[in-house]
């Protein structure tokens, strides 16, 4: 006899007799199993009334003794010796309850599990679950520094871009870096120029600046 067997037999019986049981029966019976287990599975043992009532939350002695007597009536507990009053212990024993059952609970669980599996298969068969990835915050300063740009210049240049309402996205900064690399000029020199001239980018501003410089060098006579 062990707690697992007693628990299984108890719920088999409960499932077949739902009209007879209540929560007090469940609480008291399982406290008796626990108490017996702590006593080393003694064949018979004392069940102190006050302790049992406190353990399962029953306040009324009449409710407690009614519940205990019904467990005896159900056949799960044997009353060896009744207590003389509500302050003494009943001597009881746990019955290895093995009345012939048709295992209705086992059948119900198997039937329910089968239906649940079929329902799950049907409900998930045509569902494509979208995989959600945690959004990673892009650190623009760290990105620029990882490419070799001076952190102070990066900070100053970002202020320029902020005034121009330009966003420091990875795509935008990658585009800027490619333009700088194509110029075959020291990247920090380029960035310094962008800061000094308040350029939000490089290629377009540089080409525009080159065009303006060339116009200044053309003779007024040639422009006529």
Keywords:
single chain; 224 residues; mainly alpha; 2 domains; three-stranded antiparallel beta sheet; 3 strands; 60% helix; disordered C terminus
Can you walk through the features of this model?
By secondary structure, the protein is mainly alpha-helical. The chain has two domains: 3-94, Arc Repressor Mutant, subunit A, CATH 1.10.10; 140-223. Helix content is 60%, strand content 7%. Strands 1-3-2 form a three-stranded antiparallel β-sheet. Strand 2 (77-81) and strand 3 (89-94) form a beta hairpin. The chain is rod-shaped, with a radius of gyration of 42 Å.
List the topology elements.
Layout: H1 3-16, H2 23-38, E1 45-48, H3 49-56, H4 61-74, E2 77-81, E3 89-94, H5 104-124, H6 140-146, H7 151-163, H8 170-182, H9 187-196, H10 203-217, H11 220-223
Antiparallel strand pairs: 1-3, 2-3
Helix pairs in contact: 2-3, 2-4, 7-9
The name of the CATH topology of the largest domain is Arc Repressor Mutant, subunit A
Helical run tally:
11
Structural class: mainly alpha
Give me the side-by-side strand order of the main sheet. 1-3-2
Radius of gyration: 42 Å
Spans of at least 5 consecutive residues with low confidence: 217-224
Largest sheet: 3 strands, antiparallel
Which CATH architecture of the largest domain? Orthogonal Bundle
Question: What would you call the shape?
Answer: rod-shaped
Q: What would the average pLDDT be, to the nearest integer?
A: 80
Amount of beta strand:
5-15%
Order of helices and strands: HHEHHEEHHHHHHH
Q: Specify the CATH class of the largest domain.
A: Mainly Alpha
Query: How much helix is in the residues?
Result: 55-70%
Estimate nothing, just give the exact number of structural domains.
Answer: 2
């Amino acid at each position: 006899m062990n707690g697992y067997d007693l628990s299984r037999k108890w719920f088999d019986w409960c499932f077949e007799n739902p009209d007879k049981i209540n929560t007090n029966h469940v609480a008291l019976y399982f406290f008796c199993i626990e108490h017996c287990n702590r006593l080393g599975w003694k064949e018979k043992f004392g069940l102190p009334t006050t302790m049992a009532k406190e353990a399962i939350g029953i306040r009324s002695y009449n409710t407690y003794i009614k519940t205990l007597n019904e467990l005896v009536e159900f056949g799960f507990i044997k009353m060896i010796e009744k207590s003389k009053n509500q302050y003494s212990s009943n001597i009881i024993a746990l019955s290895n309850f093995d009345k012939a059952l048709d295992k209705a609970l086992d059948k119900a669980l198997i039937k329910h599990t089968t239906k649940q599996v079929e329902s799950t298969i049907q409900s998930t068969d045509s569902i494509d679950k979208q995989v959600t990835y945690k959004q990673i915050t892009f650190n623009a300063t760290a990105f620029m520094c990882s490419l070799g740009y001076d952190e102070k210049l990066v900070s100053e240049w970002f202020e320029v871009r902020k005034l121009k309402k330009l966003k420091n996205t990875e795509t935008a900064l990658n585009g800027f870096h490619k333009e700088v690399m194509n110029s075959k000029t020291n990247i920090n020199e380029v960035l310094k120029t962008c800061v000094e001239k308040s350029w939000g980018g490089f290629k377009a501003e540089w080409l525009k600046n080159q065009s303006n410089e060339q116009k200044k060098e053309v003779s007024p006579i040639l422009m006529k």
